[in-house]
Amino acid sequence: MSNLLTRRLALLADDAHRGLLAGGLRGIERETLRVDSAGHLAATAHPAALGSALTHPQITTDYAEALLEFITPAEHDIGLTLDKLDGIHRYAYSRLGDELLWSQSMPSQLPGEQEIQIAWYGKSNLGMLKHVYRRGLALRYGKAMQCIAGIHYNYSLDERLWRVLAADSGAKAAPLAYQSASYLATIRNFRRYSWLLMYLFGASPALSSGFLRGAPHQLQTLSDDTLYLPHATSLRMSDLGYQNDAQSGLRPHENSLDDYVAALTKAVNQAYPPYAELGTKRDGEWIQLSSNVLQIENEYYSTIRPKRVIRTGERPIQALCLRGVQYIEVRCLDVDPFEPVGISVATGRFLDAFLLFCALDESAAISEQQSAMYTENFARTVKEGRRPGLTLRRDDGDIGLRDWGRELLERIAPVAALLDAQRGDTVHADALAAQAAKLADADATPSAKVLAELRGNGGSFADFGLRQSLRHAAYFRAHPPTPAEQAYFGELAAASLAEQDAIERTPAGSFDDYVAAYRASTLCPHC
Question: Where in the numbering of this chain does the Glutamate--cysteine ligase domain appear (predicted)?
Answer without folding.
Answer: 10-379
